[in-house]
Amino acid sequence: MPPKSNTSNTSTVPNASRPGPAPKRRTWLAVGAVSAAVLTVGAPAAYATLDSEQRPAQTRRGEAYVETRLFFGTERPDGGPEVTDRQFMAFIDREVTPAFPAGLTIQEGRGQWRDSNGVIERERSYELVLLYPASEARAHDSRIERIRDAYIRANAQDSVARLDERTLADF
User: Fold this and answer.
1) Which residues contact 154 (CB under 8 A, 6 or more apart)?
2) Which of 137, 143, 150, 157 is geometrically suited to a Cys-Cys bond with 99, CB 3.0 to 4.6 A?
3) What own/partner pairs with CB < 8 Å and gap ≥ 24 does 154-157 have?
4) Residue 138 CA, distance from chain mean position
5) Terminal-residue alpha carbon distance, the chain
6) Do residues 109 and 125 lie in contact, with contact meaning Cβ atoms separated by under 8 Å?
7) pLDDT at 8
8) Residue 29 above 80 pLDDT?
9) Diameter over CA atoms, the chain
10) pTM for this one?
C-alpha cells in the first residue's frame, strides 16, 4: 500500500449555514442602503437650508419707506477741474439739507461709467442716501429731481444716477 499523504483533501462546498449573498457583496449592499437612507433623509434638510439662505427672515418690523440713492461723479466731461470735497459739501448744504432736513447719509467711493463720448471714466464719487416715508414719495420726487438737475448744471455733469427701493424702516 502506498504511504498516505499528510495533505487533506478539502472540498470547496459552499457553507450551507450562510444563506444569501457572499460577504463582500453584502458589504456593498449595506453601504448602498445606508447611502440611500442618508440621501433620503438629508436632501430635504439641505434644500430647506439652501432655500432659507436665499430668502431673508420675514420680520415685518418698521414702517413703509423709500430709500433713494443718488450717485454723483466728480470728473467733468468738459475737462474742467474735478469737484472738490469742499464744493460737494457746499452743494449738500445749499441744495440737499434744506429739502431733507430729517437726515441723510453721504458715502465716498470710486466709480466707473461710459460717458457721452463713449469713453470709460473712472472717478472719485459720492453716494447720497435719502430715506423717507413711502406716503411722502410723490412730494419728495420733485425735490430729488431738482437736486439732480442742480448738480448737473453746477458741475457740467452728463448725469446723476438715481436708484429708488421700497423698504421697511424702524427708528
Assistant:
1) 91
2) 143
3) 154/91, 155/74, 155/76, 155/83, 155/87, 155/91, 156/76, 156/77, 156/78, 156/80, 157/72, 157/73, 157/76, 157/77
4) 29
5) 111
6) yes
7) 46
8) no
9) 127
10) 0.64
pLDDT tops 60 at residue 43: no
Work out the number of other CB atoms within 10 angstroms of the CB of residue 132.
Answer: 20
* pLDDT higher than threshold 70 for residue 60: yes
CA distances from 18 to 29, 41, 54, 118 (A): 16, 32, 52, 82
- CA–CA separation, 75 and 94 (whole Å): 20
Note the pLDDT of residue 26: 57
> Which H or E run contains 26?
helix 23-54
Q: What one-letter code names the amino acid at 30?
A: A
What are the pLDDT digits (tens) for 66-116?
A: 999 999 999 887 788 999 999 999 999 999 999 999 999 999 999 998 877
- pLDDT computed for residue 18 by the predictor: 52
- Name the burial class of residue 83, with classes exposed (0-12), middle (13-18) and buried (19+) by CB atoms within 10 angstroms of its CB: buried
Instruction: Give the dihedral of Cα atoms 155, 158, 164, 170; nearest 10 deg.
Output: -20
Average pLDDT, whole number, for the chain? Answer: 80
